[in-house]
Amino acid sequence: xxxxxQRTYVVYIRDNKENTILNMAKESANVYNQALSIFWDFFxxxxxxxxxxxxxxxxxxxxxxxxxxxxxxLQQAYKAICSFLASKKSYEKNPEKFNGKPMPxxxxxxxxxxxxxxxxxxxxxxxxxxxxxxxxxPLSFRWNAKLGTPKYxxxxxxxxxxxxxxxxxxxxxxxxVSQIEExxxxxxxxxxxxxxxxxxxxxxxxSGKVILSLMRLRSKINGETQQKLKKLKKHSRKYKxxxxxxxxxxxxxxxxxxxxxxxxxRTIVNDAVGKNITKIVAGDCSGIHDSPNLGRxxxxxxxxxxxxxxxxxxxxxxxVIGGIVETIPENYTSRTCPSCxxxxxxxxxxREYRCSACKFRYDRDGIGAINIFKKVSFGCDWQSQSxxxxxxxxxxxxxxxxxxxxxxxxxxx
Length: 413
Hints:
Blueprint: E1 2-12, H1 20-44, H2 51-57, H3 67-93, E2 114-116, E3 121-124, E4 127-130, E5 139-142, E6 152-158, E7 162-174, E8 184-189, E9 193-198, E10 203-207, H4 209-230, H5 237-274, E11 279-284, H6 296-304, H7 307-320, E12 324-329, E13 352-354, E14 361-363, H8 364-378, H9 388-391, E15 398-400
Parallel strand pairs: 8-11, 10-15, 11-12
Antiparallel strand pairs: 1-7, 2-6, 3-4, 4-5, 6-7, 8-9, 9-10, 13-14
Helix pairs in contact: 1-3, 4-5, 5-7
């Protein structure tokens, strides 16, 4: 059985000698800026314009953009406004959920992303053609015709790599995971162990020490760069040279982080497929990034930890083959004994969980994964229930570490 999935791919490109892409990005920015200006002028006079009303008032001449690209820039401006108004409304109800007061999108942009919808995209003679309007030469890029025609294309500027072309393609994938019988794998996300999984047979701990090391290095390099830039004149030759060097180093670190996260997620998905898992359930710990109060050093670790990216990668890989990925609240999962249900007053201080009531001992991250599994299996009554293998003999956790010189898709004891 096959299913069609949409996936986003990124290709790095260069502008031509005429700077066509740059000029199109500037025109897109002008449309975006004018749409914002018109909306706020009416909004300050207590008039709320719809997107179609804003479109009627925008009169910036279209010279390089396709009509759909022109409208897409306007729609992005209105989308930013609506997002701000929704955030402002939520902030007024509960300001504690926000790190600061939401600010409206009023600042003008010099360049803005160029959007190409389906009507402006063609594939011809092994070329991807992006229309720039009637009777004008389209943007042309080399293309593999076997990939088909993209459904959506965006050209944007990224500081580290320059111009990039992001496209959405439809891909047919075979369904590997069968939904006849529901088998569950629970995941507890963290910092030092970026993930711990439990499938009622084994507990696997995925080390996040290399990730922490790379994040510390990135912060150190950014801090040293800022110290050097403070002593220099802004936009001077040396100032720009130091900024370029910083971008190159940070890009390499970010690429290494992304590689580790992808290989970790692939390992988890391969493990799930090998054990006929149909559903992966993760504890929702996204709230820890809002306002951590663990000290300056620990706050930095928590805020920068990319465990939510790891969960997104797991979802992308597992849902493609027919699996299901869900999140549930993880309240008390790291403080509750899975054997007797005793709840500690605070989270365990060490890496080992020790129950004062039944003397049960196990790795604290493994305890979190086991309790998430119980929460899915037993619902509201999960704390009073016990799994058979927890009452009996629970196998020691299996460790997994990233090693660039070895096969990182194999668990190591």
